[in-house]
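[recover] target loaded
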């Protein structure tokens, strides 16, 4: 097991049935191979820094543009659609970390988000971050349509 969140369930299955279910074993196998493949990717990227000198190994500086890049992502959520309604889309986050930024936000109401909604949300967050005081931002198709900052207002129609 690689995820402590699985411990109670696995122990309960073993105590109740003497073994885990096939579905549980398959799920655990997916998780462990995702974890080990991420680890293998990190090792591979570090090995890129090594070179053989005269009888010894030399560790070089981390390259600005490495030869290989291994990125382990996990699907955080499926989106309503991609850039266009006929396209599938999902939000992926780094596999080994808790979601950050918009990926960690909780949707309180409304339809499920689309790719375009996330792009607009990021544009709004980015613009709002440029202000010191509380601000409201209106975005449509990645374009700022209006902003308001404590007593100031800028509208474009």
């Amino acid at each position: 097991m690689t995820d402590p969140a699985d411990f109670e369930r696995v122990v309960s299955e073993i105590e109740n049935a003497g073994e885990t279910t096939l579905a549980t074993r398959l799920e655990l196998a997916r998780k462990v191979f995702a974890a080990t493949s991420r680890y293998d990717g990190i090792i591979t990227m570090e090995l890129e820094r090594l070179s053989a000198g005269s009888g010894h190994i030399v560790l070089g500086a981390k390259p600005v543009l490495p030869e290989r890049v291994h990125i382990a992502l996990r699907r955080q959520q499926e989106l309503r659609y991609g850039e266009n309604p006929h396209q599938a889309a999902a939000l992926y986050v780094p596999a080994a970390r808790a979601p950050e930024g918009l990926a960690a936000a909780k949707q309180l109401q409304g339809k499920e988000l689309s790719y375009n909604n996330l792009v607009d949300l990021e544009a709004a967050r980015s613009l709002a971050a440029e202000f010191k005081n509380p601000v409201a931002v209106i975005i449509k198709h990645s374009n700022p349509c209006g902003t308001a900052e404590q007593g100031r207002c800028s509208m474009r129609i």
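[recover] notes: The chain has a mean pLDDT of 90.
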